[in-house]
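Field: COMPLEX_INPUT
Field: COMPONENT_COUNT = two
Field: RESIDUE_TOTAL = 619
Field: MODE = joint
Values follow.
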Amino acid sequence: MTTTLELVVAGRRRRARRRASIVGVLLVLAAALFAASLVYGRTVYPIGDVWAVIRGEEVPGATFTVGRLRLPRAVLAVIAGFAFGLGGVTFQTMLRNPLASPDIIGITGGASAAATIGIVFFSLEGAQISVLAIVAGLMVAMVIYALSFKDGVAGIRLILIGIGIAAMLESVTTYVLSKAGQWDLQEALRWLTGSLNGSSWSDVVPLLVASLVLVPLLLSRTGALGTLPLGDDTAAALGTRVEATRLVVVLAAVGLIAFATAATGPIAFVAFLAGPIAARLVGPGASLLVPAALVGAVLVLLADLVGQYALDTRYPVGVVTGVLGAPYLVYLIVRTNRAGGNL
Amino acid sequence: MTTDHRLVAQQLTLGYRERTVIEGLDLEVPPGQITAIVGANACGKSTLLRSLSRLLAPTHGQVLLDGKQVHRLPAKELARTLGLLPQSPIAPEGIAVSDLVGRGRTPHQGMFSRWSSDDDVAVAAALDATQTAELADRPVDELSGGQRQRVWIAMALAQQTDLLLLDEPTTFLDVSHQVEVLDLLTDLNRSRGTTIVMVLHDLNLAARYADRLIAIAGGTVHSSGEPRDVLTEDMVRAVFGLDSQIITDPTSERPLMLPLGRHGVVGSTADGRRSQ
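Field: COMPLEX_OUTPUT
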């Protein structure tokens, strides 16, 4: 005869174990893909050479190819994927709807429209573009919030307005790119679907710094985010300061998304897919922040490898994630139509 | 557990935008007792309950817990003393019962929500008290309405507050589950001394289970006190606009309200007029 206490402890341990093992598997997977994207390429370098380069030793050929090309690219893939995944799942949890991802409701679109305008019309670069993208992301978030505010914000109204704004912003980006002089297709695709081509350490640094600040800030709100899916009133009754939490969390999530977009362009659907995939993996109820962030990193690493080497032509990472994400979006809209979907 | 927390509303005015729902209401929640708030639809019962638990800021007046304004108290500190079960809380898809009940521990946990053995004990006690232990691993969305309501109450119990406010905890339940929930709340009150305030639709169940009734009409307290003093024919007419007859319930010796509609009463005519 088991006591209720034993039952409670056993249930909690089982859920925690499942979550921990999923997080472990995702970590191993991310590490393996990371290593693979350093080793693999037109020239395959043995892992020993790669390790030597990472430690700072001179290896003919590898020092340039791995150290200058592949390493920043792989590091950027990890951090951007992490940021997209975390930012996306935060929005989805907060608004209790998987469609509420920042890449669906126009926040990513705002960041990339602003970045393209900055590049094409004002010849901005580096940190200036990051700042512009972040300001634009925040502004779009505020505009959507303001437009959907009527006796509080209803999730579905916010999402529909966001989808409309996303479409508008995408056409702005396309228009601006068409005005760009000798813009090559690759650079254009970076701002339409996201790409890791031509990544350098100067892309990594701002995103890394932002992540070091914003990720702990978001993770510190795990408890509050765990109460929001129970409804605003229940969350408040459990001691969550609903509006204050929402403000902090939105700012942090938009910041992450905008910094990542400034670095890689809006890698399609990663923010949107990471949360639901993580939810399927860890099971109901568990906090999805860390699992979704890791799923994001795995998705970007994997999609970049596929895009570069699995097909005849090299495709930017966003094309591959786009192919994965679009059918899921359609599925979700169909399901939401029937039932009012949940994460 | 202490039962001497005092929850008081003074000159409370509540509303949404221009629409005032409650105006100049004074109220004292008797500690250690069960209080039922009754009133017609849209009279502001739920609004009042939300304000008592700080979910709605008053336009005028104040709500005091032990002499301090609830709107000034730190959110978590308040949530350790005063719990609220809203009318329609949302269960995340697929969440297990014990996991949901565990959310009640949030105000007792720190920033990164570290779980302690106290939390396990509280959750187990809440499951036992609500007889939901055998459901612990089941997904909440697979449960019946009555079971689900007990699970929500278990979550509120896990919060271990001395004061518990409930907004229509018996809505959507059939009569046996209504009685079950009210019995459970009475157990809680008798064994732990938890002060309970609930909004109830059913006047007769309110009169049977509550130590005190508060009748709300016209944005303020119409009458309050023991059920026998509050549940009168005059009150029912003034608050609900309904003729009624009050008798003494032989099973509880509490007042029992019999509505006098146009039909279904001895002596009523076919066109619905009552013979004098």
